[in-house]
Design goal:
Layout lengths: L1 H19 L4 H8 L3 H4 L5 H26 L20 H17 L3 H7 L5 H27 L7
Helix pairs in contact: 1-6, 2-5, 6-7
């Protein structure tokens, strides 16, 4: 049952990305390029998508998720919520966020839409996904190498 709901959630998420335009790199780049405000070419529509997502999720979080977490109850189809355990802002987080932002700003695509775009079999989408997987592998490899050289605990 969990796998079925995971599949349905993924399909709903992918459909939302397609419907909203977040899977279209040109639309994302038109939103990120705020220099277009001056000449009228800026596309603020993705701000409405993000606002709509917050408008749906925030009440659900406040009225359902947060109270269940306070009572140590998990989601409906699991025994616990799987939240990040790391809460400290550190160098790897900042570097990772900067690389993510640079990649998103240069190409107009991030991991969620990249997975959706794989269905198109577009060579650029396939190349993006391959380099994303390679980057994740190299990032882990570098983290492990650094962890071996530095004293004390380093999370990878």
């Amino acid at each position: 049952m969990r796998n079925l709901f995971a599949l349905l959630s993924g399909l709903l998420f992918g459909a939302g990305l397609l419907l909203s335009g977040l899977a279209d790199p040109a639309k994302v780049l038109a939103f990120l390029d705020i220099s277009g405000v001056v000449n009228g070419h800026w596309d603020p529509s993705l701000m409405l998508v993000m606002g709509g997502a917050l408008g749906v999720y925030l009440p659900v979080y406040l009225l359902w998720v947060k109270p269940r977490m306070a009572r140590n109850q998990g989601p409906v189809l699991d025994s616990q919520y799987h939240l990040p355990s790391k809460t400290r802002i550190d160098g790897p987080l900042i570097v990772g966020a900067a690389l993510f932002g640079l990649g998103w700003g240069m190409l107009g695509i991030c991991p969620g839409p990249a997975v959706v775009n794989l269905a198109s079999l577009d060579p650029m989408a396939l190349a993006f996904m391959a380099t994303m997987v390679l980057g994740a592998y190299l990032g882990r490899l570098i983290s492990r190498m650094i962890a071996r050289r530095l004293p004390g605990p380093v999370e990878a």
